[in-house]
């Protein structure tokens, strides 16, 4: 009798605590999503890490701890060089995308008065078509017998097809800068839109020129959007392998192609896993450096 | 303005050459034809790939939106301690390259001896789509007036019916937007499907296969043109729904 009463009060206390605690109730509501994500994301990433310390012999995985795969990366220059090239290409893509996106975002935020949403939709429509088809369209445009070459030739501007436009890193940069444009325009637009217009007016009233106002007021205030855009473009493009495979040629190969080949023709899953881990760590390091640099820049301007 | 041309050029190329009466994608244009579209209608592989993509897309859209509702409700309704880390964790697929998500899942399925199929593609897409769904729904639920739910509970409805009769109608535009967005992402997704599909084919995988054959090129362009038109229609529909949602929301506050 006594014990059941105690149990009851325990249950009641727990219930009361549960009802009162925002954290507990919040987590309860979050738990289905969290469980799925733990199983489908954390667990696989743990497997990725584990496998990177295993070894592949023909079709078998040898499940003993080894650092061979990581040693391979540092000994064979090819992986190191390709990772370096991937980072460089992605940084170029990031710069190109942001530099092109900024003026357009600026135009929509400050010069379009009505129907801003329609502008945003107009800009994003090209990005709702299949990524694969967009990359492929660039291959068609830039190709040896492609749209640009055949167009220029039928107009009589050139006699021979230009050879330098497809199958090189520049083609990869152009294609990726196009593919990720919307991802850059949107955050920059949002941060420009948020800027309090009276700050800009104040700067002008106090005698700053339009250019100086932009450099000292608008640009620093829109920096969070620019940073978000840069990272959202830079991080995923490092791992891209569709674009380099279609338009990159041999000089445009990126680390994604190497990782993919480890899971296909080369059949070396542990090495592929190790390369993925190394790439992720490198990307994280570069991102930290970028953030550090913008922090310094901010301090200087302010 | 030149930038807009740059944005639209590839999209314009697809329809332009899909009507061109030539095997090769080169200027000058040779004449108008619909034969590439007719060729599409006959393609057996395309039909099954399309149906597969629809199946995966619809399932992923529904499941990720349900998961998104749970997560978004938890984030907007409760002030939770140390939730930032967990939320950040759900968002991880937005910032890691898809290839890494793809190979991690591939290894996991292979080690746990799960056969690759449309289901494994769906699981991959679910991971990718849930954060998008959550973001869309959070923006819809922010500023949600708690007193509606409280009124319903005070009037004796239980939590289940309160959700269906009060909360759900209010967040409906967000739910529709999330369904459309996640469906589109899944429908278009190539990298995860490439690693996780096994012998099954989805639409992007089918297109990837076609790109290797030069004689299939014009009909692939035609397919691309159709996808461009359809997705444009879907995006405008989504925007119209979102707008009507804003109006309903505005009225209900009065």
Give your account of this protein's structure.
- The complex is a heterodimer of chains A (302) and B (254).
- With 302 residues, chain A is mainly alpha-helical.
- Chain A folds into 2 domains: 2-51; 68-301, MetI-like fold, CATH 1.10.3720.10.
- Chain A has 14 helices and 2 strands.
- Chain A has helices at residues 2-20, 22-51, 68-75, 77-111, 116-124, 131-142, 147-154, 169-179, 181-194, 197-205, 210-238, 242-248, 255-262, 269-301, and strands at residues 55-57, 60-62.
- Chain A has a two-stranded antiparallel sheet with strand order 1-2.
- In chain A, a hairpin with a 2-residue loop joins strand 1 and strand 2 (60-62).
- The N and C termini of chain A lie far apart (71 Å).
- The model of chain A has no long low-confidence stretch (mean pLDDT 82).
- Chain B has 254 residues and is an all-alpha fold.
- Chain B has a single domain (32-42, 51-224), classed as MetI-like (MetI-like fold).
- Chain B is built from 11 helices and no strands.
- Chain B has helices at 2-18, 35-42, 44-77, 83-95, 98-111, 118-141, 146-154, 159-188, 191-196, 203-210, 217-253.
- The longest helix of chain B is centred in the C-terminal third of the chain and has 37 residues, at 217-253.
- Chain B is globular and about 70 Å long.
- Chain B starts with a helix and ends with a helix.
- Residues 247-254 of chain B have low confidence and may be disordered.
Quick summary of this structure?
The complex is a heterodimer of chains A (302) and B (254). Chain A is globular and about 95 Å long.
Structural descriptors:
heterodimer; A: mainly alpha; MetI-like fold; 2 domains; 14 helices; globular; B: MetI-like fold
Q: How far apart are the first and last residues' alpha carbons of chain B, in Å? A: 42 Å
**Residue-averaged pLDDT of chain A, rounded?**
82
Most extensive chain-chain interface: A-B, 74 and 77 residues
The largest sheet of chain A is: 2 strands, antiparallel
Tell the overall outline of chain B.
Answer: globular
- CATH architectural name of chain B: Orthogonal Bundle
Radius of gyration of chain A: 26 Å
Flag low-confidence runs of chain B.
Answer: 247-254
Just give the CATH class of chain B.
Answer: Mainly Alpha
Query: Beta-strand percentage of chain A?
Result: under 5%
Give the full name of the CATH homologous superfamily of the largest domain in chain A. Answer: MetI-like
Tell me the name of the CATH class of the largest domain in chain A.
Mainly Alpha
